[in-house]
Amino acid sequence: QKEVEQNSGPLSVPEGAIASLNCTYSDRGSQSFFWYRQYSGKSPELIMSIYSNGDKEDGRFTAQLNKASQYVSLLIRDSQPSDSATYLCAVRRRSGGSYIPTFGRGTSLIVHP
Amino acid sequence: EAGVAQSPRYKIIEKRQSVAFWCNPISGHATLYWYQQILGQGPKLLIQFQNNGVVDDSQLPKDRFSAERLKGVDSTLKIQPAKLEDSAVYLCASSLVSQGQGTQYFGPGTRLTVL
Fold this sequence. Notes:
The structure holds 2 protein chains of 2 kinds.
Chain A (H helix, E strand, L loop, with lengths): L3 E2 L5 E4 L4 E7 L4 E9 L6 E6 L3 E5 L2 E6 L4 E6 L8 E11 L2 E6 L3 E6 L1
Parallel strand pairs in A: 2-11
Antiparallel strand pairs in A: 1-3, 3-8, 4-5, 4-9, 6-7, 7-8, 9-10, 9-11
Chain B lengths: L4 E3 L2 E4 L5 E6 L6 E7 L6 E7 L2 E4 L8 E5 L5 E5 L8 E8 L9 E2 L3 E5 L1
Parallel strand pairs in B: 2-11
Antiparallel strand pairs in B: 1-3, 3-8, 4-5, 4-9, 5-6, 7-8, 9-10, 9-11
């Protein structure tokens, strides 16, 4: 079983709609959770981080975490064509005194005008 | 603040040749990561350093890959000998701390093609 699972997509939404991206993880000891955006040919850049159950909002982005269900999601409101990218879910698990990150394979999002 | 620097940006080699990548993290960042990203996949952690000590290298193919971080700053990743399946983008990232809330900042990556 893969440690971090994402649907590879593509997820296609019209401009102005809400895009919903989902991620599940297998390690119940995971401590922190991140969403990165990666444009084609570019490096990942951090969008959101979330550490406790519930919702966290930042502008058009909302991250949701449910540790009991081992599930983390990202909602993008008022989607724009510039949001078209691959969205990577990353999870950090504790190992000794450090935290080891694991990435999912990413979900490709296409926002069409 | 300067970002994570990597070189070279692109490298093309024949299989069985060797190659080395260099990374200079953001100044003051104690934790350094090397990832391999194959096309269509997420980044896979190869090795994580805390200062100049190895925190995790469980996914590093140690028969052909090696990495070091001299003086807890710059790092090099080497592949010897390279295989076709090593074709990927090699990403270096750094963070101020490795604890759960440390943000990782990625360099531009090195695109390796093995022919």
